[in-house]
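task queued by scheduler; priority normal; single chain, no ligands, no partner chains; default sampling; output format set to structure tokens
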Amino acid sequence: MYIQSLQSLRGIFALFIFFHHFSFSGEGVGVFLAGGDCGVSFFFILSGFVLSVAYLGRNSVSFGVPVSKTETSKKAPKSIGHFGTFMIKRFSKIYPLHILCLFLAIALKGFEITLPDVANALLLQAWVPLSEWYFSGNSVGWCLSDFLFFYALFPLLAHSYNRYRRYFVWVFCVIVVLYGLLIVPFIPNRLVDGIIYICPLTRLLDFVLGMVLFGLCNCHTVNPFKVYAVGLLSLLVLGVTLFMYYMMPSRYGLSLLWWPSMALIIFYGAKSNSKILTNKVLVWFGDISFSFYMVHVLVIKYFNLFTLKIGMSFSPFMRMLTVLVLAIVVAFVLHRYFVLPVERLIRKKLCDRRSRL
């Protein structure tokens, strides 16, 4: 399901992550410290939401498991089909670019391949709560390890959501409360990032929140005035969250703190026809936002290495602007001439194979 306003939001939050990683000095803390935490939460929640919209729809038949007659709509949306086909379609979008970026990251260190790099290639790095593992290779690639886990569980989660919706939501709420009160406060400091921010098991909660949010969006018809009110409320909650981010223990700011604001923003994006969020430039950037996300840290590193070798200096603002433009150009080129062609090729081969069966 393609929703222009959500595509624009993808681009905006990809920029937040960029500013989290970009430092005026070339090293150290980025210019927007909160950008990484809120951006990652947004993308994980959005992933659960978008997959639910695409494969569940309103009272749908999903994964080949029919719902009761009273729950089936007259126009049931497409089902997810075979699990293997589903996984191939998802990975045709993300895995080839991941391997290319991993190769470029390994090239930066003289092609010295380590065990964490191997785990990175297999998308297993996020399961090891040590920074030298989950930030190995192209450091931002760890999130794909989480997405792999989400995709693998999605058929089971979606089936449970369709069959036992009310219990599904209640169990989710109980798990979140227990997680926030009994687990988060007691995680050792050295493992906080690896478990709360990185681990696929804990970040699965963000993904499931997206599925629950889909249910709320699907069940409520909102008039334009209420949509506008939700938009204002989301900005207010985001502002309060940003303030609290620097006041609360950092372990809560890694994920849970962002849930209300991110959920409101996604709800607004799904319901809104805002001229700003449907702007062609923003939508275009949203379309290449995954490529931008995957390459932006590499562009920063290669740019810093190049300027250091030739002794070129920039003012802080010009450095940021130059790197940002370079990252956008590289992302566009990769998206158009690598990601899309490879995705089409894989899907064509998949279709040819299915036609022969």
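post-processing summary
- The chain has 15 helices and no strands.
- Residues 58-78 have pLDDT under 50 and may be disordered.
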